[in-house]
Every structure is written in structure tokens, then in C-alpha cells.
């Protein structure tokens, strides 16, 4: 079975521009050498389809202590070509961000545990979805005016939900990510799949694997790394009986734009 990892983060005022440079490997971040491709979409008119014209005013004009951007970090299946990964990402993004302005990058560094590829998506987006009203950058990130929208900032789509609604939304996003991956795995002749459910919901009696990162792994003994590698191989060995009956097709699973 392929590995499922879905993480949500957010960034405060002043951090979006630098983080966009990080995920797209600009400037000092070029040294990583693991960028496969990147892109963006849904930018407002003042940005002219350029994230470089969107994130700096977001950092400058967004309200203090507000989330300037949110980010999904998603592990993608190994063994797919760049074109196959690009098709998967193109189908996945609309169901995650809708009409919100976004920027993404696909990294594929070498795994610190087994030396294999480690493809994963960074998808950062703003909660302020364009509404057809032309605004200057400063007005765009101002407080929304419900009585006169043209006089205020662009409305944020993140508010007004209780904890249950937020939980259900996260579950739906996880399900969408898994369904798109499984549809593309099947499309490319693969029999493995991912499962968005918790280990407890899957009936698996073990603790979830922690994301250790290269720095922490480099400080581990060879024996500890070997045990991690063997445990991962054991978990990722597909169970043919588990894949039967999934019935996943692109028509059933993939959310596409327009």
C-alpha cells in the first residue's frame, strides 16, 4: 500500500513571500535541487496571474495576527513519471482550494531512510477568493464590508464554522486527496492504494509513523534506520484482497476544473 500523508499548516503576516520562495526553490533555496514543477492559479486582477505580485501585498496589508496563507503538504505515490504526477496534481488542486488564489510546488527529494524518491506537494493558498470586484492590493486585504462589498476587502472563506464543521471539512479533504491518488494509481496500472482513514478506523493496531525529517534521521544509528526501513517495507507491501472492490475510476473520484 502506498503511504498517505496529509498535513495542514498556516502562516502569519510577513511569512507568505518567503515561504513561496521556499516551496518554489527560489534564491538560497535553489540548493535543494528537488523541485519537479510548480504553478499557480485564481489570482486577482491586481496580481496579473503572478504569485510574486500577490504574496508581498498580502504580507504587508493583511490584518495583524491573521493567517496570510494556509498550506497543504501531501505525500504523493512513488514510481510515477513527472507527467503522471502533474496530471494527478492538476486533478487534485481544484477540490482543495476551489476559487481561492493558490501557488504550488512538487518536490521529490531523496528519502533519508531508503534512498528512494519522496514526492510531495506543497499547496499554499489565500482564504480571500476573488469575487469579481476590482480592488487595489491594499483594499483586497482590508476587512470585508458585508453591506457594501465594493468598499471593503475581499471576503475570507474560512470563518463562520464550528468545530464539527471544520472536522468534517478536513475529513472530506483527506478523502478527496486519497480518491484522486487512487484513481490515478489505477489509471497507471498500479494495484496499490492509499487510505485517508486513521489507523484505528482501518482496524490497524499500531502507532502512526512520525515524520522525522533528514536532520533527525542523520543522528540515528544504522541499526535504528534499518529497523525503520524494514517496518516501512512491511507496511507498504500491498494486500491484493484489500484492493479488490475499490471500484475507483477517474469519473467517480477526480474533481476537475471547469
Description:
This protein has 258 residues and is of the alpha+beta class. The longest helix has 25 residues, at 163-187. Strands 1-3-5-4-2 form a 5-stranded antiparallel sheet, with helices on both faces. It has a single domain, classed as BirA Bifunctional Protein, domain 2. Helix 3 (82-92) packs antiparallel against helix 6 (163-187). Helix content is 36%, strand content 14%.
In terms of topology, how is this protein built?
Blueprint lengths: L5 E7 L3 H8 L11 E7 L13 H7 L5 E9 L6 H11 L1 H4 L4 E6 L12 E6 L11 H4 L22 H25 L11 H4 L10 H6 L3 H15 L3 H4 L6 H4 L5
Antiparallel strand pairs: 1-3, 2-4, 3-5, 4-5
Helix pairs in contact: 3-6
CATH top level is: Alpha Beta
Order of helices and strands: EHEHEHHEEHHHHHHH
Strand order in space, largest sheet = 1-3-5-4-2
Helix coverage percent: 25-40%
CATH topology: BirA Bifunctional Protein, domain 2
- Total strands: 5
Stretches with pLDDT under 50, minimum 5 residues: 238-258
- Termini, distance in Å? 32 Å
- What portion of the residues fall into strands of 2 or more residues? 5-15%
Domain unit count: 1
Q: Mean pLDDT score, rounded?
A: 84
**Any idea what the CATH architecture is?**
2-Layer Sandwich
Q: Which structural class is indicated by helix and strand composition?
A: alpha+beta
Query: How many separate helices?
Result: 11
Amino acid at each position: 500500500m502506498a503511504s498517505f500523508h496529509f498535513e495542514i499548516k498556516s502562516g502569519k503576516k510577513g511569512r507568505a513571500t518567503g515561504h513561496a520562495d521556499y516551496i518554489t526553490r527560489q534564491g538560497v533555496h535553489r540548493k535543494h535541487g528537488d523541485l519537479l514543477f510548480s504553478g499557480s492559479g485564481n489570482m486577482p486582477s491586481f496580481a496579473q496571474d503572478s504569485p510574486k505580485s500577490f504574496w508581498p501585498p498580502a504580507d504587508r496589508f493583511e490584518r495583524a495576527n491573521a493567517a496570510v496563507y494556509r498550506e497543504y503538504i501531501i505525500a504523493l505515490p512513488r514510481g510515477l513519471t513527472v507527467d503522471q504526477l502533474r496530471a494527478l496534481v492538476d486533478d487534485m488542486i481544484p477540490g482543495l482550494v476551489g476559487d481561492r488564489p493558490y501557488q504550488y510546488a512538487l518536490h521529490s527529494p531523496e528519502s533519508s531512510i531508503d534512498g528512494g524518491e519522496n514526492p510531495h506537494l506543497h499547496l499554499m493558498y489565500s482564504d480571500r477568493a476573488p469575487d469579481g470586484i476590482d480592488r487595489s492590493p491594499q483594499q483586497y486585504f482590508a476587512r470585508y464590508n458585508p453591506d457594501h462589498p465594493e468598499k471593503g476587502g475581499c471576503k475570507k472563506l474560512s470563518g463562520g464554522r464550528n468545530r464539527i464543521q471544520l472536522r468534517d471539512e478536513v475529513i472530506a479533504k483527506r478523502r478527496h486527496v486519497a480518491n484522486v491518488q487512487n484513481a490515478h494509481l489505477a489509471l497507471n496500472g498500479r494495484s496499490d492504494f492509499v487510505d485517508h482513514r486513521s489507523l484505528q478506523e482501518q482496524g490497524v493496531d499500531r502507532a502512526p509513523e512520525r515524520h522525522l525529517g533528514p536532520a533527525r534521521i542523520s543522528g540515528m544509528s544504522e541499526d535504528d534506520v534499518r529497523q525503520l526501513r524494514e517496518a516501512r517495507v512491511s507496511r507498504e507491501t500491498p494486500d491484493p484482497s484489500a484492493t479488490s472492490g475499490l471500484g475507483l475510476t477517474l469519473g467517480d473520484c477526480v474533481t476537475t476544473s471547469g
